[in-house]
Amino acid sequence: MANTEIFLSGIKPTGTVHMGNYIGMLSQMRDISQHNKTIMFIADLHALNSVRDAVAIQNHSREIAAIIMSIGFNMDNVLMFRQSDIPAVCELATMLTNVTPKGLMDRAHSYKAAVDKNIAAGNDADFGVNMGLYTYPILMAADILLYNSDIVPVGADQKQHVEFARDIAGHFNSIYGDVFKLPDARIMPDAGIIPGLDGRKMSKSYDNVIPLMATSSELKKKIMRIITDSKTPDEPKDPDTSTMFQLYRHFASPDEIADLAEKFRAGGMGYGTAKNILFEKLNSVLSPMRERYEYLMLHPDEIDTMLELGAETARKIANKTMARVRHVMIGTKK
Ligand code: TRP
Questions:
Q1: What residue ranges of the chain have pLDDT lower than 50?
Q2: What pLDDT score was predicted for residue 155?
Q3: pTM above 0.90, yes or no
Q4: What is the DSSP string of 260-291?
């Protein structure tokens, strides 16, 4: 039996899901789903402020759904759907707009980062900023509040957004009565910075990612391309600064991790060997997931059916919330 608290997380379909996404977020949500009611949705409306390619959004959304169905989530506890399949989220966002202070949006890290970048480049402060980016936290609050979420597990970068959702809910309740549950952010255990192929943080924007569902041969090629320093096989090496080791430690057992760390420190192991060890480990963990993923991608109707079933349930929850909101705001019957 699942616990009663509701955990919710969203993932934007803006690019290929990579190891960093898996280690930092997906694998942790998978673990949460074993014993908790878990809502996983594909935040396609949130992708719109940056992605202008409908086909890409469609494809990435399916990929994410297939990944959620392949990596060991306890699907009995999971409600999975596409954000845009529940139009009530847009209605709620519009309503929340009216209780959200503009100053709150001005303080959002993501908006401020865009402004700082513009000013540094000598541009107008709001150059290239659309209202989707500016009001992003309101739509996110609607996601969280619509489904009565208790806990929103996020990385540190998203913490402010969840706090905004809580602020907005509190403000709404102080005007209209006890309509929304106040959600809590839960910072996921820090997975550390997951390095990419060039040693910098794994990120689409650095073009240094290892796709989670790379085929076995793609995976091997990527791993062989990891940049290392020029130590000879004989020299002792530092596991903590090694990209190979930093990836390995998220997939291997404690004994295996200690063993490889020792091999780094002792010297006598070349980077080529370390790459092979990493490849074998990743491939053995990922192969069964990849098999299921590839099957699903060849049977997209199975993915779409799952998304549609999820959307039906989500719409029921959403409609109940919206009945309360409409009642207190515009006087419709409950
Ligand atoms: N903003 C999140 C991100 O960029 C995605 C997201 C959208 C989300 N709505 C959410 C996460 C609601 C948690 C809860 O990663």
A1: none
A2: 87
A3: yes
A4: HHHHHHHS---HHHHHHHHHHHHHHHHHHHHH
